Amino acid sequence: MIGTIIQKELTELSRDGRAIGLLGIVSLLLVLGLVTGFATESAREQDILQAQEDDSSVFLEQGVKNPHSAAHFSRMAHKPIAPLASFDPGVASYMGQVIWLEAHYRNPAMFRAAEDAPELSRLENFSVAGVLTLILPLLIILTGYGSIASERERGTLRQLVGSGTSLKDLLLGKFAVIAGIAFAVLALVVILVTGFSALSLTESGYTASDIVLRGLSLLLVYGLYIAGLAALTLLVSMLVREAKTALLVMLGVWVVAVVGLPRLSANIAEQVYPSPDAGTFWEDTRASLQANRPGSESAEYLAVEREVIERALGRDLRADELDDLPINSAAVRLEVSEVIDAEAFNASYAELFENYEKQKQLRRVLSIFSPTIALQHLSRAYSGTDVSAHEHFSIEAERQRNTIVRIMNEDMMINGVGQSFGYVAPAEFWEAVPEFSYQPSTVTLAWNESVIDLLILFCWGLAATVAVFWFGTNRVRI
């Protein structure tokens, strides 16, 4: 019986020019988003690879030079393309792509792609994820708003029930068609994007298995989103008298829950937890650096100094050895300063990312009224384009900066005895500085950080599905 109902619904939809037209528009937008995303990310990956090669070449060929001068010249840490950025670019274009690993400073990422993009490409939701989140619900609404209401208006609902068709089978058949069409579009897109990413992002540091798991995760959460919207559309169609009323109600839901609240939640979060501007951030960071620096004769400073020297020598110092140790004192001071200041830099950046997390938590509360907000969080997390993914890169880049500066200071410390800043390292020394080998965060981290969003989205889908079948078998008007 359910199969007969599904066949009947598909036949009616195939004769509905509006549904076919909207399906064509959605498909066209998705194709355009796919092509644009693939082209953009492929070109960006090639740019990153070329920039890494150029950076390495210039650094290795700088010749005889003072290590501290080289530490200021330093290296660049390039963020690899996120595994599914062609699906959901998220905040990747706004957080920066390259971090300058300079001595004395923990720099923010620069070269934000959004700043250099032409105006038309800055459309926030013109991506595969944007189309699936905003436009696909319209397809669900158009194919489902009259499922029950139109049957009641035409009198065919009474005939179907009178002929022995159970309301449960009728609802299952209609739900399968409404959700199935949208899910088929979703599955095709996710398979294409996942396959492209697994085959093309060979130098990104992401494994094929991790990318496949991310694709399956996206399939799950967007599937829950589709199921919830399909159930809600059926529910409204059952509760109202006329199909046009159902259409108006669902369009209102779309405008408020899908379009309005996600944007409003971002504005509210920014107002409650405002992001600091660059000037304020660096002013506060400089104040923290000054407050965190102990005097050169303090016990804290001397403890760090001993730790720095012991690490450079690779052994523990005797109690009376420090004063007469043949070592470049200027390099010691430089490295002690790096160690002490790193703590203040880390605290400042941790506070910045904590503020972003507070904004996300506030939006998460508002997602109780709009599953689209939870879906956006999940989509970016599983695509590897959320703030957490950028924070992971920033922390790893800072570790690399500390390593580079330490190696250069230690060389000057050990080999530049009595020369202060006059010491120069040989040209072959630069090969001892390791390349930045970034291992991106895995999908497991995204799962752990997105449990609440997944639970909210699941509860939305479950509540809508339970409601539609409960009302359908107990309260629906024939």
Describe the model.
The protein is 71% helix and 2% strand. It has one domain. The radius of gyration is 29 Å and the shape is elongated. Helix 6 (128-144) packs antiparallel against helix 9 and helix 14 runs antiparallel to helix 16. Strands 1-2 form a two-stranded antiparallel sheet. The chain is mainly alpha-helical and 478 residues long. It has helices at residues 2-14, 17-60, 67-73, 92-95, 113-116, 128-144, 149-154, 156-162, 167-200, 208-239, 243-272, 278-292, 299-313, 329-366, 371-383, 387-415, 443-449, 451-474; strands at 75-78, 98-101.
Given the structure, what is the number of helices? Answer: 18
Strand content: under 5%
Arithmetic mean of pLDDT: 85
Shape summary? elongated
* Helical residues, percent: over 70%
Total domains, how many?
1
Order of helices and strands: HHHEHEHHHHHHHHHHHHHH
Distance N to C terminus: 19 Å
What is the topology, as strand order, of the major beta sheet? 1-2
Which class of secondary structure composition applies to the elements? mainly alpha
Largest beta-sheet characterization: 2 strands, antiparallel
From the alpha-carbon coordinates, what is the Rg to the nearest angstrom? 29 Å
Give a count of the beta strands, DSSP E runs of length 2 or more: 2
Report low-confidence residues grouped into runs of 5 or more.
Answer: 115-125
